[in-house]
Structures are given as C-alpha cells and as structure tokens.
Amino acid sequence: NKIKTLLSTDKLNPVLIVSPSWLSPGASVTLSCDVEYPSEGWLFSWYKAVPYYKITEEPYTYELLPDGSKTAQSLHIINGQTSTAGYVCRVERGSNFYHNYYSKPKFVWSADVNSAASLTVGPVVQNFGYDSVKLTCKGNSPSWRVRKFPENRRPYCSNFWDSGESVCIIDTTYSDDGVYWCESMSKEFSNAVNITIQDFYSGPIMVIPDDPVKTGTFVSLSCKLRRKKIYPSVAFYHNNKLIQNDSREELNFLAVSNSDEGSYKCQYSGKESPSRYMSVKCE
C-alpha cells in the first residue's frame, strides 16, 4: 500500500533539464531526465516538442528523436542543434508495470536570426496612460504565436494563431521580463530574445495626450520614471524653456491655450526624457 501511494504522487513525474539554455556555435545540447522516486529501473525516451494548433488544450505534440527510444540512459546528447527548440523526456517501467510519464517541455534558445522564422523587438511606444513594446513574428509560415518563459500563468501572447505577421504588445506598466520567441504552425521556432523591461528605459517618459487638446480645458502632463525616487527633482521644459522645477511629477494647465502648444520634455533627477509634442485646437 505504501508503494502504491508513492507511485501515485507527483514524485513519478520526470523533470527534464536542458544544458545549456542558450546555444553557442558548435556546442552540443545535453538532456537529463530525473525521476525522484523510484530512481532506478526506468527506460527513457526522448522527443522534440512540435507546436500544435490547439494552443489552449495541448500546445505541443511530441516527435521521437533519432535513437531516442527506450534507453536505460537518463542522459541524451544532441549535436548540431542551431536553432531554438523544445524537448520532452518520457519514462516507463517494464511491461508488467504499465507506468509511463512525460516531462513538461523544456527549451534551448538561440539568438541567431534566420529568414524562415524571426522575432523582432520594437522600441517603447508611448500611449496615453501606458507604454508598450511590440514584438513581431515573420517568416515562411502563414500562422504564428509568441511564446514566453517564464510563463507566469500566460505562456502565450494570445490564445489564437495569428495569420501573416504575428504582433505581440507588451504593456510595460507590468514587469513582464522573460525570454520570448515565435512558434509557427509549420513547426518552426524563431530566434529567442531575453527581454528585461527596465532595459528599455534609459530615462523618464514624458506623458502627453495623443490627441489634440481643446482650448479652455484642464490638461495634465506627467513625467514618469519606472523606478521612482523618494525625493525626486522634476523639471519640465516647453520648447526647451524651463517652466517648472520642483518635486511634482505633473504639469497642470487649468485652462490650456494656443500658446501652450509645442514640444515638451522633462528631467527626472537628472535624467532627461525624449521630447513630445502637444497639439491644441480651438473649442
């Protein structure tokens, strides 16, 4: 009874370890499959994870690797891998046991860009109230999806395949650091990109309404720094002329006028934002 209880626990689920995580030219990839209990008596099989069209149900199917079927070795070496790929291991005990279990997919990433599948990262785009970064998938396949690790409950940018170019918008209001790559319905993986949202911010962001503001209305501009300081020094400039210099992160207009139209920028504790233009139209 004790053995049956142990066999029914998560300790039977194998854990796949991929080394290295990032490919380098000429390097081999080592797959290691570990089972916590029991640790001996298993046969190991090795698979490549292939994108599947049902994203929300079973995102991958598994294709057996050459020489990857039912070996007693818990290690498997892959030579000549040059692009991003996913792998899975399966463990089973002899024919009298009927126990076989699959690991979760693990990935090895490549930063090399190829024409068949590529991921490009755009600059930060300032929107009204938030900023975003655009990721774009391109290549030979008609359908794409953007994958992320760690998943943080959301492994894909969308729960649908996108036709043509796939575009993923990351809201930088939330820290969504991780490794991103594209997967196609044609079983292709793109280059991977390690994104740290803070890397996009060398300075503050000047927040201005995207649409023209009406004369006589209240308008508030702001100077935003992702990592705020406790006692900031914030300066606002209109057409390169200093108009406010204190600790306030907002520049308010009780009744905006035509003379307020122009280019604005700010300095946050010595760091300067890019300039942005505010348009004013008559009521």
UniProtKB/TrEMBL annotation:
Residues 14-95, 204-279 form the Ig-like domain. One of its GO terms (cellular component) is external side of plasma membrane. SUPFAM superfamilies: Immunoglobulin. Coiled coil: none annotated. It holds the Pfam family Ig_2. GO terms for molecular function: transmembrane signaling receptor activity. This is Ig-like domain-containing protein. It comes from Oreochromis niloticus (Nile tilapia).
